[in-house]
Amino acid sequence: MELHEKLTLALQRCGYPPLQAPGDYRHIGSGAWHDAYRVQPPGAEALVVRLRKQMIYGRKECWEPAELHADYAPAGLYYEAANQCRPGTCPAIYHYEIGRDLVFTLESYIAGCPLPLSVLTPPDAFAIGVSLGEFFQAMHDQAVSLPGSGLLTWGEQGVCTSSPDTGMELWPHHEERAMRQVETLSRASLGLSRDVLQHRTVEALTCLREEQAPIALVNRDITSENLMTQDHAWAGLVDPVPMQESGTYYAAFFLHCYRRYLPALGHAPRYQRHRFHEHAMMMATIADGYETGYGHSSREVRQRLRLGEWLWMLDMACESYELTQHGLSREKRLRHGNEANVAATLALSLRELMA
After folding, report:
1. Cβ contact 234:131 at 8 Å
2. Which residue ranges does the record assign to the Aminoglycoside phosphotransferase domain (predicted)?
3. Residues 8 and 99 in one domain
């Protein structure tokens, strides 16, 4: 099926008139899972069609309806919640279809461009971070609409959570995982003190657990390609991966990603075109702004964010170490880079853990 035909078919299946000419669409982006096109149907506002790729991380896609529903239905729930929190943040129109011949989403077009790291000034970057921090803090303060926690998925009744755990029931799982990571790293002859690692891990987990905040709707995918800007100001977000989890823990995840994780993965094929490693200082400035916007000058909140960051660094160190031990599949090479890249990420994370 030709591209023009695919885009026209997507529009028609969502009740829109077909495209009339090739100039009625243009390619606006490509991620690991989709190619995105801005389309202009006759007599209607501009829309975005995201066509699912046939090959994702080097593997041919299989048509699994339940998995596809799980990929797409939760985004609609997130868009609705985000727009209630800050109108216009996410597409107001959202449809998806999972046909055997065509898998796509169709949504409102948010004017602007993905976060332009190469041309931002430090004041712009900090201001964008503040806006993001304020938005996500407001999102995390909203009551969730579903029982349970974990990644949002698809069940017999529609969108649901992947775990029945709520509130304080989450933290034993985090504690168990973190302590396994401590054991893995302390036995690995990496020069790490088990006692120091264990002490800092317990300190971080205790501080986060004592917050006793309700579960929040969070977004696990906050890469720059999904954060839209206009005139160097944050305008909105697209393509979320929604979860119900600790808001503070995932606010710390944003800080970790922009200060360390994404710059460390800048050479991996998945992220190479973004050249995150070349924009590390600007990304750190965005994180500084985010911390300011999210924390609202609260020393207690900032302390929890920093301890949450440390837990994510522990996770990064253990992930990198295990990659060095078990080899790199094609998918992992796409996500993490080659052996030298993984070794460099491990070295960075070990330095940060013991800083």
Report:
1. yes
2. 25-239
3. yes
